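Severity: low
Component: inverse-folding endpoint
Summary: output formatting inconsistent between runs
Steps to reproduce: submit the following structure tokens with default settings.
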């Protein structure tokens, strides 16, 4: 009994552990031994930025909040009891990307926030306008706008289809400008009115333009909105940019970095914590291009392993900072990654010549939303002969796409044929049915979808 009496009660220990893990507010502990234990425990556990409750009842309009960084910011402020407008375009489960506006809303409400899921494509002025009006009607106004939605395509000038250029410009630059324009009248009425763009500092070193000029232009458009609007609305709205020092684990990074890249990343929560701290600053804090780690150091965070996907593993620096792209690629490879954007450059370069590559370029240019809607299938081609390789045509997702290599999912139809016959079939010089009946074309999968592909071939005859 004597030994037991010298130990704290089990209930005291539970309270103490809770106190150390959630130190604000911290109740008074009278027992000296418990105070010492609490001090040691609290000061040895790596800590993320603590919530303060300052954003309770505030309304945040976040583009692209159904997943990744946008959702992480939403969950952080939701813990304060904030209202979150989830302005994103994923209403149904995507075959390659997790989360919808509705699943995000459930998560936000589960941690104490209020959610308003709005189906929004930031390229569509009417959809944004309706979402803004819906937000004002539901929550009484808008206090903070986070321009997070972004499109990325890391290819050179000659290898970037204009469809991709238009997408990046429309989502990144125009989408940010338009969403800001429609939210500003309400942000000006808020005590804490703030715009935060997830965009990089304006690093004008040509090395950040030469490999992906279109993407850099589109992304820097978001940063130029910060530069201009911060000055235009000084004293009325704070306008800042936030960018990570290291790569962040998101669906986009998984696709760009390939297998193994996540070990070199930090979690989206580091961006969420930095954003939260920015929102707690006054309106006079404006026109800044903020790097997450540097800013959080000023907020008292010293141990950043808590944000790492794999603590202690070397981290990959993000784009547009001082480290050049060649060094980033080498680090990815040294640490077990296979950077898709580097492999993509090699594939495009190697595949940019020849009749098969020319045929796929023509197919890419002919794809429309109507073609995708009327077809609804993914086709993969295993080609042999003088121009061997694996290619695919996606006529199922968004506005469609083509690519070299295996489709990053499950193809509905697999076709095997000689590369010369492939060109003949798509140029109308050989009937697909004849190729199939003669054994020159082998088909696996959905035969009904295989027949539908003939519609696209008919459209292409005059172009090939």
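Observed output (run 2 of 3):
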């Amino acid at each position: 009994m004597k030994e037991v009496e010298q130990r704290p009660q089990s209930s005291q220990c539970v309270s103490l552990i809770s106190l150390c893990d959630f130190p604000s507010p911290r109740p008074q502990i009278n027992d000296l031994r418990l105070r010492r234990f609490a001090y040691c425990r609290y000061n040895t556990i790596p800590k993320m930025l603590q919530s303060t409750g300052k954003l309770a009842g505030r309304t945040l309009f976040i583009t692209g909040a159904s997943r990744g960084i946008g959702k992480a910011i939403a969950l952080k402020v939701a813990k304060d009891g904030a209202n979150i407008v989830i302005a994103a375009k994923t209403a149904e489960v995507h075959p390659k990307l997790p989360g919808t506006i509705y699943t995000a809303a459930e998560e936000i409400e589960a941690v104490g926030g209020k959610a308003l899921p709005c189906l929004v494509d930031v390229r569509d002025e009417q959809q944004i306008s309706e979402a803004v009006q819906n937000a004002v009607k539901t929550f009484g106004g808008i206090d903070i706008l986070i321009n997070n939605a972004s499109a990325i395509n890391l290819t050179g000038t000659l290898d970037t289809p204009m469809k991709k250029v238009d997408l990046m410009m429309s989502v990144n630059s125009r989408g940010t400008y338009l969403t800001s324009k429609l939210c500003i009248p309400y942000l000006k009425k808020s005590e804490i009115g703030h715009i935060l763009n997830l965009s990089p500092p304006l690093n004008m070193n040509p090395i950040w333009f030469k490999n992906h000029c279109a993407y850099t232009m589109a992304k820097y458009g978001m940063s130029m909105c910060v530069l201009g609007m911060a000055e235009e609305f000084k004293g009325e709205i704070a306008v800042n940019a936030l960018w990570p020092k290291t790569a962040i684990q998101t669906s986009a990074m998984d696709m760009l970095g390939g297998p193994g890249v996540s070990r070199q990343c930090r979690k989206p929560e580091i961006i969420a914590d930095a954003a939260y701290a920015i929102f707690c600053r006054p309106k006079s804090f404006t026109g800044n291009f903020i790097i997450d780690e540097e800013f959080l150091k000023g907020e008292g965070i010293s141990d950043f392993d808590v944000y790492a996907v794999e603590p202690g593993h070397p981290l990959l620096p993000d784009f547009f900072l001082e480290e050049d792209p060649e060094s980033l690629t080498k680090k990815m490879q040294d640490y077990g990654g296979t950077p898709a954007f580097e492999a993509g450059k090699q594939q495009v370069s190697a595949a940019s010549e020849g009749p098969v590559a020319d045929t796929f370029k023509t197919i890419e240019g002919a794809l429309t939303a109507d073609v995708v809607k009327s077809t609804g299938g993914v086709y993969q081609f295993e080609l042999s002969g003088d121009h061997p390789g694996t290619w695919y045509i996606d006529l199922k997702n968004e506005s469609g796409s083509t690519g070299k290599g295996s489709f990053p999912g499950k193809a509905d139809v697999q076709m095997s044929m000689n590369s010369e016959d492939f060109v003949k079939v798509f140029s109308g010089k050989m009937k697909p049915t004849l190729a199939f009946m003669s054994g020159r074309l082998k088909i696996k999968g959905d035969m009904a979808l295989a027949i539908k592909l003939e519609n696209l071939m008919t459209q292409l005859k005059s172009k090939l």
